[in-house]
Amino acid sequence: MTDITTMSQDNNLLDFAAERARRQHDLNDKRLAEVRRAFEQAMPMAGKKKPKKKPKKR
């Protein structure tokens, strides 16, 4: 009978290593997104704007 109660209690246990890894991953993703956003504001991508054509010399 104790084996059944032990098994039901195991379902409620958390794997702290996995939860910590998931949280660290989320924090790193958040930090990366912030850095990427700041970098794009400081140095916009050249592919988004059309380059100006130089006038032809005659």
Shape: rod-shaped
Structural class label: mainly alpha
Rounded to an integer in angstroms, the radius of gyration calculated over CA atoms is 27 Å
Low-confidence stretches: none
Number of distinct helices: 2
Largest β sheet strand count, sense and barrel closure: none
- Determine the N-to-C terminus distance: 97 Å
The overall pLDDT, averaged over residues, is 80
Helix content: 55-70%
**Beta fraction:** under 5%
Multimeric state: single chain
Strand count = 0
What is the helix/strand order? Answer: HH
Structural description of this entry:
By secondary structure, the protein is mostly helical. The protein has a domain at about 15-45. It has helices spanning about 1-10, 15-40. The longest helix has 27 residues, at about 15-40. The mean pLDDT is about 80.
